[in-house]
Amino acid sequence: MTIHKSAVIADSAIIPESAVIGPNVIIGENVKLGENVKIIGNAYLECCEIGDNSVVSPFASIGTPPQDLSYQNEPTKAIIGKDCLIKEYVTVNRASGEGNSTIVGDRCLLMASSHVAHNCVLEDEVIMANLATIGGHCKVGFGAFIGGMSVFHQNVRIGEMCIISGFSASRMDILPYCKGDGRPPVPHGINVIGLKRRGITLAERTNLKNAFKIIQSGDYTTLKAADVIEDTLTNDKYIQNLVRFIRTSKRGIVVRGKN
Question: Quick one: residue 16, left, alpha or beta (phi over 0 = left, psi -120 to 50 = alpha)?
Fold first, then answer.
């Protein structure tokens, strides 16, 4: 175990021999580090778990109390997955509500000054660019990319494998697989490059393109569009995910410029 002499570590912290703790790091109560975790100088941790091989950069704060006025210091935590890179000044608050967790999946990249609020859930391989901010209880799907300086209201869902341009903002859900831009980030087709990189076939991408044409045609409500998609297109797993996402939305979905 390599721990700089200036680091301050609570007695309750669980730190394996393979961890590296830099100068001026503070590790408070209820912290558990995985194997080969590296906490670089001046980072602050409390009430959190950090997965194997993850790196926490200078001045990042993980597991700090939520910015939620209902929070009464009940025991909660933040969980960071394996192989994550947490850059400078990132904040990941722990959850509110006893026993709850804020969760960041495996292989996520949180760029400088991005913020993950209480009770958020990020699935694996999510990227948040610099200063991106998601409010409490947001859910971000597998492989989604959130552009820099983007802001999302509490409880918003961001679908898997979508890409959202920088300086976007939304109070509504963002469809999976789309390429969203603006305020709100309206879908401008599917995220072709991202889907190719994930191994989505041409036939599956074409199917999704046709689904988005139906959704944005203006001929149907969004819920009715889901019915039409299900009735007329090949029901592969991506179409099924898209239809399920639409039908389970509670905040509405960004479909066109004026919703």
Answer: beta
Match 């959850």 to its residue by tokens: 95
Strand 85-86's sheet: what is its strand order?
Answer: 2-3, 20-21, 38-39, 55-56, 85-86, 109-110, 127-128, 145-146, 163-164, 178-181, 186-190
Q: Rounded to whole angstroms, how far apart are CA atoms 205 and 27?
A: 46
**Residues 190, 241: Cα–Cα separation, whole Å:** 14
18 — phi, psi (to 5°)? -80, -5
Provide the edge-to-edge strand list for the sheet that holds 121-122.
Answer: 31-33, 48-50, 77-80, 101-104, 121-122, 139-140, 157-158
pLDDT digits (tens, 9 = 90+) for 136-185: 999 999 999 999 999 999 999 999 999 999 999 999 999 999 999 999 99
Question: Is residue 254 a contact partner of residue 185, using CB atoms and an 8 Å limit?
Answer: yes
Does residue 259 carry a pLDDT above 80?
no
pLDDT, residue 256, reads 80
Other CB atoms within a 10 A radius of the CB of residue 197 amount to: 11
Q: What is the pTM of this model?
A: 0.96
